[in-house]
Design brief:
single chain; alpha+beta; SH3 type barrels; three-stranded antiparallel beta sheet; two-stranded antiparallel ribbon; 1 helix; about 35% strand; DUF3107; DUF3107 domain-containing protein
């Protein structure tokens, strides 16, 4: 699943692939937005951990779980 995270006052975004499900990611983001967690913590497919403070979080884009097609589509 592709994840893109926007950071306030930063021209770049964080982008990575995660093995977590969309429901797990949505739950983590909801906890941060509601204020029950001060830090958004997500893991990528290779095991790296991303920590984003709630105060700097601009947006989180959750991609589809569908695998990408290779080649031409008729």
């Amino acid at each position: 699943m592709d994840i893109r995270i926007g950071i306030q006052n930063s021209p770049r975004e964080i982008g990575f692939e995660s093995a977590q499900t969309a429901a797990e990611i949505e739950s983590a983001v909801a906890d941060v937005v509601s204020g029950s967690s001060p830090v958004l913590k997500l893991k990528d497919a290779k095991g790296a951990v991303y920590l984003v403070p709630a105060a700097t979080l601009a947006y989180v884009e959750i991609g589809t779980e569908e695998s990408r097609r290779i080649g031409f589509v008729a």
